[in-house]
Every structure is written in structure tokens, then in C-alpha cells.
Design brief:
The chain is mainly beta and about 210 residues long. The protein contains two helices and twelve strands, in the order ααββββββββββββ. The chain has a twelve-stranded mixed β-sheet with strand order 7-8-9-10-11-1-2-3-4-5-6-12, with helices on one face. The radius of gyration is 17 Å and the shape is globular.
Length: about 210
């Protein structure tokens, strides 16, 4: 499940063209986008993730939902649920009715959902790549790529609404031929959240097997 979390977060915040210097036009759009989300106490997004690999003739769709508040998040995707309260992470697998508990270490994660709108500020190059229309919404297209050439993700194409600087979708390109497209279906700024939102309540999962990996 960490893989899905990493994919979700890297996609929202990573994109580049292979250029020697950062593109000031792209930087302005990214800064406006980042400021929009950073100003929210929390946000919730429903999304569709599509995995495609032409050589392997693979195309898979998954629906997901994520709530983020600062360093805390709750992600539901493909029958799994990852809950993080900033200190502890629970990974619940519905099919097995099992939850794994581990300490949350941001340094141990490829990317944290709490960082998805600021990661471009360090370790990535980016450039303006034109305009497009998505769902009737005019968007600016920004492309980023990690400066670390060992990263298996070599490019992400991000579509940002011209009107309100919200992220409409992004596409992540991996060296193994996989292409991941994330399309935002519904976005809710500042949803109600409390301490229970980002903690696993065993009482709500009857008969759950608990595996403590701490």
C-alpha cells in the first residue's frame, strides 16, 4: 500500500522537462497551486488511478479517496486503507481483515501525502509544457522530472486549472513502461476532521487480526 501512497503523492507534486534551469513561468504556476492547498486546514479528494503498459498490454482502473491534514492522512485504494496520525501508520487489508501497525517515519517514505504540493521545491526540475482542456476546464501543463537519475519515475505531466490553480489530473511515467494517470473526480476543501479521522479504531473492524511491526 505504501507503493500506492507514494504513487499518489509523487504524481501530484513531481514533474519536469530535462532543462538546465527552472522555468520561471512553471515556477509561478506551481507556487500558486502550492499556496492554494497549503492554505487549507485539510482536504479530501476522490480520484481514479489508471495503470497502462502498452508493451505488456495492461490497462487497469482503480478508484481511491484520500483525506490530508498537515502530516496526517487517510487513504483508501484497491481494498486497502492506510491511516497515519503523524506518528503511527496503520495499513488495513480488507480481504485478509488484517492491519499492520508501524512507526511513521517521513524519511522512510518515498513521499508523504502531506508534502505533495511542496516537493517540487527540492530535487525536481520543471518546465511549462503548454495548454490543454480537461473536462471543459482550460489548464496549464507543467512537466517535472527528478534530479536523481536513479529515480524510477522519470517524468510527471501535471494539469493545473488556469482559473483556480487546482490540480485536475497528472500522469506519471516510469522507466519500466508503466504509465499512471490520476484524475480528480471530486475535491472538498476543509472537510470536517478530528482525532478519530487519523487513528485506527479496532472496534470498527470486527475480528481484525492485528500485526504490530513496531
Amino acid at each position: 500500500m505504501k507503493k500506492f501512497v507514494a504513487l499518489l503523492a509523487i504524481a501530484v507534486s513531481s514533474v519536469q522537462l530535462a532543462v538546465a534551469q527552472q522555468d520561471p513561468k512553471a515556477a509561478k504556476i506551481l507556487d500558486q497551486m502550492s499556496a492554494k492547498y497549503q492554505a487549507m486546514k485539510a482536504f479530501r479528494a476522490s480520484f481514479t488511478q489508471t495503470l497502462e503498459n502498452q508493451s505488456a498490454k495492461v490497462k487497469e482502473n482503480m478508484n481511491g479517496d484520500i483525506i490530508v491534514s498537515g502530516p496526517k492522512f487517510r487513504l483508501k485504494l484497491n481494498g486497502q486503507e492506510v491511516i497515519n496520525n503523524g506518528q503511527t501508520m496503520w495499513t488495513y487489508m480488507k480481504a485478509e481483515n488484517e492491519v499492520n501497525i508501524s512507526d511513521y517515519d517521513p524519511e522512510d517514505q518515498e513521499i508523504s501525502p502531506s508534502q505533495i504540493y511542496t516537493l517540487y521545491k527540492k530535487g525536481y526540475k520543471y518546465a511549462y509544457a503548454g495548454e490543454t482542456v480537461e473536462g471543459g476546464v482550460p489548464c496549464d501543463v507543467i512537466e517535472l522530472s527528478p534530479e536523481d537519475h536513479n529515480n524510477q519515475v522519470y517524468k510527471v505531466r501535471l494539469n493545473v486549472s488556469k482559473k483556480d490553480k487546482s490540480v485536475k489530473s497528472w500522469k506519471m511515467f516510469k522507466k519500466n513502461g508503466n504509465r499512471y494517470t490520476f484524475a480528480i473526480k471530486k475535491f472538498e476543501p476543509n472537510p470536517p476532521v478530528d482525532a478519530t479521522t487519523f487513528n485506527f479504531d479496532k472496534a470498527k473492524y470486527k475480528g481484525v487480526k492485528v500485526v504490530d511491526l513496531r
